[in-house]
Amino acid sequence: MDRSSPPPEQIWGEPESLVEEDSPSKNAGHMTDLCSDETDNSPLLQPHTLKQFEQHLNDLKKENFSLKLRIYFLEERIQQKYEESSEDVYRTNIELKVEVESLKKELQEKQEHLDKALKTTESLTNHNETEL
Question: Which Pfam families does the annotation name (predicted)?
Fold first, then answer.
C-alpha cells in the first residue's frame, strides 16, 4: 500500500477551475475528502487550492457559530421552563398549605360539633334514666 502524495506543485500549482472540476464536492464538510478510500482508484490526495481550504474553514466557523447560537437559545428555553415550573411548584405549594389549614379548621369545627352532640346525648340518656 503506497501512500506517497503527488508533488506539491501538482496539488497547489493547478488552476482553480481545474481543481473545482476534479473535486467531488465543493462544500464537503470533512477532512476525509483529502484521503481516498482504499477501494477507490483515485489518487490519495485530492487537489485543493488554498482558497478552497479557506472557504471550507470559513464555512466551518460559520457552522460552529450557528451551533453555539443554537445551544445558547436552547439553554435559555430550558432555563425559562425551569423557572416557570419552579414558580408553579411554589404557587401550588402555597395553595396546598392554605387548603390544609382550612381543612384543619373545618375538622376542628366538626370535632367540636361531635363533642357537643355527644354531651347532649349523654345528658339526655342520663336524664331519661333518672326519670325511669
Answer: Cnn_1N (PF07989)
Tell me how far apart the alpha carbons of residues 106 and 42 are, in angstroms, rounded to a whole number.
Answer: 88
Amino acid found at 42 = S
> Would 38 be classed as within a structural domain?
yes
pLDDT in tens, the chain (132 residues): 444 444 444 444 444 444 444 444 444 444 444 444 445 454 455 677 999 999 999 999 999 999 999 999 999 999 988 888 888 888 999 999 999 999 999 999 999 999 999 999 999 888 888 876
Extract the C-alpha cell encoding 96: 396546598
Is residue 65 domain-resident? no
Write out the residue range of the structural domain in which residue 1 sits. Answer: 1-48
| Cα–Cα nearest to 24, from 5, 48, 1 | 48
For residue 22, the surrounding DSSP H or E stretch is helix 16-22
Q: Judge contact between 13 and 48, C-beta under 8 A.
A: no
CA distance 31 to 21: 18
Q: What's the total number of domains in the chain?
A: 1
- Is 7 part of a structural domain of the chain? yes
